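Ops channel
N.P.: pipeline sanity check, posting one input/output pair.
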């Protein structure tokens, strides 16, 4: 087929798909003009951009069913999207696919304080759940740094965590049930309003599946009583290794803080310049350690943690004496990612997890990699559970720096795996890490995971091109290569 004829065929098929979607979603439910589609071209990993073929904004479960059923019948790829705060390219659209935005699903449908759960739609923001229940003394525990914007549907897709996940768990530990629409348009309900159920734990399978198994239309979350009291320690060290050793000793002593975060010198300075939280500028590493519970218990644990910190050579230790002061300690950490944007035109926020005892070795290894690649790195991470968030600083306007930043990030993740860690703690694999999956999984491991994908989505139309570096076709043993993680996805047909 000649190029001009091929273009005409592509445009005709695109027009047919758009017309069919307008029948399902009349009015403003279908976005076709390029200017309207442009805001959806990337998620938080802005180095990768692809303009979707068309964007749809369903308002009801029936809308979602009809869109997916049509796409399934006509072999049209689909990517579901929440608020777009993902940092792994998980919500990156396809030029030959439909992007379903779920942000009109924004209702808190039910709150049951007696049984400690809330039923919400996937477009409800993380922080909005806490706001809906806090007047009665409850809250929703997972608190990603983007909690003011990120949606609960996206949290389920990526199994998001946050600064308090050490004690209270990730999304998977705080979701009781969900409603899921499969690619065929069928509705599946998993879990419920109770803590456990008989049979296979498919809810845990869906949580963290990165939108590859179905589209979530409702989530039942666990809400917790707010702690009676909470106090935080701001502890500075002259080296990251000393801070890392302190973290290991606190956990080794059987103390599980509500949150335990660490920042290195570049991140400390950026956060302090941005928020003015009172961070000591002469510190090489800073720990923020929060203890919560009954006041007597909290005061006792604060004393124990202070003693452990001093035993590890803490150069500075400040303890909050009011809730306002505690929140000030956290303000810089919560704003660390945007604050680092003051240091460099661009940055990659990486996400890997290691055993806590390996923290000093991995930090030393990252310094060596920084010199090797000629790029700076600022470290902000959940120290308590070993979830690292190195921020690689680069300038995309300088030739070759983006490629060097990508390779630097890949080397950091290889370093994590080498020291017994994993490729992701909470951001997901998406596009960013898909070519690194063989670093952690064998071909047999990956094949088993793909079989799960096939059981839910036999045609592989939901969020294709993510997670797996090589996809096995569901109907045969042949292979379809997905490679590169590059900007335009050259391996995926486009319109």
């Amino acid at each position: 087929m000649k190029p001009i004829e091929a273009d005409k065929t592509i445009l005709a098929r695109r027009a047919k798909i758009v017309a069919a979607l307008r029948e399902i979603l009349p009015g403003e439910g279908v976005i076709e003009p390029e200017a309207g589609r442009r805001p959806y071209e990337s998620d938080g990993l802005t180095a990768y951009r692809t303009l979707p073929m068309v964007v749809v904004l369903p308002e009801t479960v029936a809308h979602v069913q009809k869109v997916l059923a049509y796409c399934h019948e006509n072999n049209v790829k689909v990517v579901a999207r929440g608020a777009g705060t993902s940092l792994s390219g998980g919500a990156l659209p396809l030029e030959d696919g439909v992007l379903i935005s779920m942000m009109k699903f924004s209702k808190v449908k039910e709150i049951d304080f007696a049984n400690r759960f809330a039923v919400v739609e996937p477009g409800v923001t993380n922080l909005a759940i806490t706001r809906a229940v806090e007047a009665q003394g409850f809250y929703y525990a997972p608190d990603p740094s983007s909690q003011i914007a990120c949606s609960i549907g996206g949290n389920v897709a990526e199994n998001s965590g946050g600064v308090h996940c050490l004690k209270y768990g990730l999304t998977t530990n705080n979701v009781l049930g969900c409603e899921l629409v499969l690619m065929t348009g069928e509705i599946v309900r998993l879990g419920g309003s109770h803590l456990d159920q008989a049979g296979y734990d498919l809810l845990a399978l869906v949580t963290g599946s990165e939108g590859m198994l179905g589209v979530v239309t409702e989530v039942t979350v666990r809400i917790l009583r707010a702690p009676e009291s909470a106090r935080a320690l701001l502890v500075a060290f002259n080296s990251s290794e000393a801070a890392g050793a302190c973290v290991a000793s606190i956990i080794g002593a059987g103390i599980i803080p509500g949150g335990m975060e660490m920042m290195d010198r570049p991140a400390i300075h950026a956060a302090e310049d941005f928020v003015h939280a009172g961070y000591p500028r002469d510190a090489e590493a800073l720990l923020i350690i929060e203890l919560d519970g009954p006041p007597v218990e909290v005061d006792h644990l604060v004393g124990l943690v202070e003693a452990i910190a001093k035993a590890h050579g803490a150069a500075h230790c400040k303890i909050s004496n009011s809730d306002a002061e505690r929140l000030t300690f956290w303000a810089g950490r919560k704003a660390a990612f945007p604050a680092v944007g003051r240091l460099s035109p661009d940055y990659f926020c990486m996400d890997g997890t290691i055993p806590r005892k390996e923290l000093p070795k991995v930090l030393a290894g990252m310094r060596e990699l920084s010199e090797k690649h000629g790029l700076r790195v600022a470290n902000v991470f959940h120290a308590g559970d070993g979830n690292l968030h190195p921020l690689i600083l680069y300038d995309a306007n300088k030739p070759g720096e983006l490629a060097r930043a990508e390779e630097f990030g890949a080397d950091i993740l290889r370093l994590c795996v080498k020291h017994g860690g994993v490729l992701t703690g909470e951001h997901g694999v998406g596009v960013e890490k898909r070519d690194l999956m063989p670093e952690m999984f064998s071909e047999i491991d990956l094949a088993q995971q793909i079989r799960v994908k096939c059981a839910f989505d036999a045609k592989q139309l939901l969020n294709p091109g993510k997670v797996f570096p090589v996809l096995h076709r569901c109907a045969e043993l042949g292979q379809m290569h997905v490679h590169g993680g590059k900007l335009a996805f050259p391996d995926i047909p486009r319109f």
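N.P.: looks fine end to end. The chain has a mean pLDDT of 91.
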